[in-house]
User: Fold these one by one.
Assistant:
Number 1:
Amino acid sequence: MSKRKPRLAPRNGHVAAMRLRKSGSHGKTMKAQRRADTIQFKKSIRDIQTSGPAAVSLSAWGAQISEFGKMAELVEGAGL
């Protein structure tokens, strides 16, 4: 007489999807947001710089880039 095989319970299709789903917030992280803001600011400077007679030296804007980052951190820290 052969041994009877155990009967497996039916699989739940939702479990596999839930195990692979990433949890957490849906928005950008703070680091990604800061980087995006910096890149956008640099692009706007580059556009101003290449816009003809109103060209501005990038070195004159160097201090403002760091100030922009500090202001963004202060605003984020204040919860505004």
Number 2:
Amino acid sequence: MGFLSDLSHLSALELRLFNEKRRLQAATRQQEIELRTIWVQQIEKEIAEERERLKITATGPAVPMTDDELLAALGV
């Protein structure tokens, strides 16, 4: 399995986190706020674990590319 296909799970988690944060912002009942806060924290933990598994840092993959290497890889 290639690197890009490995990113699909991370992308799904990030979308889930985005949606859950929106639901948290819209929540009005205290019980729902507390529950959704826990869910957001769990999703953030899952994302951190997935990034660690994929060796992705905050700035990108563990093996960085120069601009020229990226352009060459894209065929530009």
Number 3:
Amino acid sequence: MTCSTTPQPHKRGASFDELIVIPSQFADGYFADFTPASQVRTLDGTLVANLTCEWVDPVTTRALRLTCLDTTAWPIGPVLIDARFKRAGDGYVISTTSAQLIVVKDVTREVPTP
């Protein structure tokens, strides 16, 4: 399955929030019995983050929201992301293609309050 998000720079420290749209070749509700998961990893495979995965509508399973509130520890440079769907019962797995994100340095940071 091709990941339909367009890779783009992500500002380190900004919350990560992306939407994956499921291709039309899959019928509405096809993934209802699947558990989604998504991770961000460096190019050498080091885990950067386990993302929160939530169906926008769990009945149709047409779009999956991937989020990570705190990205302050993400490394600067290229990272990979994909999504994996595991079916309950038999353990059948479908994965998206991997997409590359470029994590760039943040300029504005949280200012401590006195």
Number 4:
Amino acid sequence: MNQHNKIIDSDEIKVLFDGKSFIKTVTFEDDNISILYYETYEDMLQNSEKLLITEEEFNIFFTPTTIEKIMIKNTSDILFKFPFVKNISITLKTNNYVYSAKLNKTLIYEFTGVDIGKFNDSNEYKTNFASIHLDKKEIRNKLFQQIVNID
């Protein structure tokens, strides 16, 4: 199969995200991924047959650190794991804010100076990029402030 015509199953994407149970939709079109999280617990109830998450769990899940990881770390991991993906757009509405970002490898390079497309395997990616730029709260927060729109 042509790499650029590959179909990604939404579960392949969800498994890489913190709060995967809170993801409402994942769309993949023209090598672009779009992710939308549930806005409210009620919205989640309406769209899920077997909900194993309580309203309290939903309400306390989206801490500032978790939101940063979702918007920066998880999206970067997707771009590394699926090299044919051009852009990943993500929207998360919680705590009366709308967090949105459109991330791609070029933007990551502009902000970090690292070409994540050059890594041959996940160990090299983790050692030379993720552990330096994504796992350290201060650096991840700086990327978050530069890349994520908050309304």
